[in-house]
Amino acid sequence: MIEHEMLSFLLAVAVLLGAARIFGEISRKFGQPSVLGEILAGIALGPSLLGMLLPEVNHWLFPTTGSAAIALDGLTFLSITLFLLVAGMEVDLSTAWRQGKAAMVTALFGMLVPFAVGYSLVRIAPEFMGFTSHTSIHLYALFFATALSISALPVIAKTLMDLNLYRSDFGMVVIGAAVLNDLVGWTVFAIILGLMGSAVDGNLANIFNTVALVILFTVFVLTIGRWAINRSLPWIKAYTTYPGGILGFAVTLGLLSAAFTEWAGVHAIFGAFILGIALGDSRHLRERTRATLDQFISFIFAPLFFASIGLRVNFVEHFDILLVITVLIVGTLTKVGGCLLGNRLIGMSWRDSWAVGFAMNSRGAMEIILSMLALQMGLIGDSMFVALVILALMTSATSATTLQAILRRNKKVHFQDFASSKTFLNEVNGTTMQEVIREMVEHMSLSLRDIDARDVLRKLLRREKLMSTALDRGVAVPHARILHLREPIVCIGVSRRGVECDSLDGNMTHLFIMILTPQDDNGVQLDILADVGGLFRDQEISEEIFSVRNYTEFLAEITQMREKAKLM
How wide is the angle at C-alpha 394 spanned by C-alphas 390 and 397, nearest 5°? Predict the structure, then answer.
């Protein structure tokens, strides 16, 4: 790049990143995902607004040809590749497999119903659904079906965390289903991209080669590659600077994996995504390292990509109201309906089934990325792209509000309403989560009446294996639903020295709130978990709790915390 092109490139990146961060923060202040603000920033700077008001400024700042334009495209390409690496790290395969039937059935019906309806709709009414003859109608229908089927795991996880439901049984079913959904959805999309490239070449052998490479690559990385990464991380942590060695290792592997899939004929982001899954599944990758990589990429690189979307398309000119409404209605009804049907077949309550459906309906960044790639490949037109972006933003923006409305109970629940002096331990001696759980079950065995304490212990430990129930700020919430239990029971234990429990923030756990509810609890367990998470989300555990001598003193401290929370 010559001097003025370098100046143009630096200004473009600075303005784009600055506007994206400002709009993203404003969006978060209103309780919306930051990606909404980041895309709006790009729309404001792109042809939709700045291009209409000050076209010369828009063209000078964001040229469409020349070295500066190529450099900006390269930077956004790198940004989305790294973002998919981080998104893959959010995919916990172990959790998905351990959820078993519930997650698999939810994921299966949550994909098959939207896929079948989406494919059929394009074949029945291709022109109405934005199809033009410049591409294959079969590939266009396959893409639209995949776009309706996919969910946004990062958005779903963030929504569940905000509602204090992430580590609940309900949350684990949703996360497990979303993991499988994303894995299958992105694999199908990678195959579609491979089919497009092979169709251009006109060589049938290339189609089979691409499909075979995608499948073999996925299987290899998630088996042998995953094992090798897990074995390598302890060595890297021992002999390199922490956390720089791990971060460099992760990014290097992610880019190499991306380069391989680009060479194989599918997009580079698929390789980064699959490698991220293998990396994130390692038990040697600490939460702080994961958070460091996530924050750096999510706050610097991701905003650049999402803001750049608004530079590519005129959202005003290509806004087709009928197509937008159709995509919104069909996308929401099929996703929610498919999950609802699957959940009812496995015996989930109507309330939880509706909640799972709307949680899985979040499309978010993953849908936008999928659509952007399809637009760049010439698979879809601008009108369909705009409709899919609006679907992603609308479903993500309304997900938390809808879940709150479905799961809200008439009476406010406090966790201490189900505890008593008989189920309170002012000092637990266990040094691991498993030891603490055994100690607490033994202490509360008399309160269980006719319930077998050994069965309670088995269910609590089995739940803990799915995912640690340790939250942040020193609190853990081991919980289980118990057959024949008549009413909820909460047991509270305090550890003055703290226990290492793989918490979200990496700190020691001091307060254990064990929650047992009947098998059919009408959502009480979720309400208790939400109450605990809400109380301790913005407050550290009071040091006075460590010195309480009885349940009455503990209640006094909790009451004081609740009063403080009302004033915050």
Answer: 140
In angstroms, what is the C-alpha Rg of the chain? Answer: 25
Residue 315, phi then psi, degrees to nearest 5: -65, -25
> In the chain, what is the greatest distance between 2 CA atoms, to the nearest angstrom?
81
Q: Residue 159 and residue 67: Cα distance in Å, rounded? A: 40
DSSP 183: H
> Would you say how long the chain is, in residues?
568
**Helix residue spans in 350-452 (DSSP H):** 350-360, 364-376, 382-407, 433-443
Partners of 450 in beta bridges: none
**Whole-angstrom distance between the N-terminal and C-terminal Cα of the chain?**
52
What pLDDT digit, counting tens, does each position of 459-485 carry? 898 888 877 888 877 889 999 888 888
Q: Which two tokens stand for residue 451?
A: 């319930």
Buried-exposed string 358-378: b where 16+ CB fall within 10 A, e elsewhere: bbbbbbbbbbbbbbbbbbebe
CB-based contacts of 258, cutoff 8 Å, min separation 6: 81, 85, 268, 269, 270, 271, 272, 275
Dump the DSSP string for 318-330.
Answer: T--HHHHHHHHHH
Closest CA to 415 of 530, 511, 494, 503: 530
Name the residue among 381, 266, 367 with its Cα closest to residue 312.
381
The tens digit of pLDDT for each residue in 337-364 reads 999 999 888 888 888 889 889 989 988 7
Whether the predicted pLDDT of 109 surpasses 90:
yes
The pLDDT of residue 203 is 54
Going by the DSSP 8-state scheme, the letter that residue 476 receives in this structure is E
Which residues partner with 92 through β-bridges? none
**361 CB contacts (<8 Å, ≥6 apart)?**
151, 331, 332, 335, 336, 339, 395, 399
Write the DSSP string, 57-96: HHHHHS-SSSHHHHHHHHHHHHHHHHHHHHHHHT--HHHH
Token duo for residue 279:
């990396």
Which SS3 state, helix, strand or coil, does residue 267 take? coil
Query: Could you give the 3-state DSSP secondary structure of residue 413?
Result: coil
Q: Per-residue pLDDT averaged across 242-258, rounded? A: 89
The residue written with tokens 């070295």 in the block is: 67
Residue 245: closest CA among 254, 255, 234: 234
CA distances to 168, 411, 447, 495, 554 from 439, rounded to whole Å, are 22, 32, 14, 12, 19
Residue (of 431, 454, 520) closest to 483 by Cα position = 520
pLDDT tens per residue, range 24-51? 889 878 877 788 888 889 899 988 898 8
Give the whole-angstrom CA distance, residue 141 versus residue 108. Answer: 19
Give bridge partners of residue 499 from the DSSP assignment. 509
- Which sign, positive or negative, has the C-alpha torsion 296, 503, 348, 108? positive
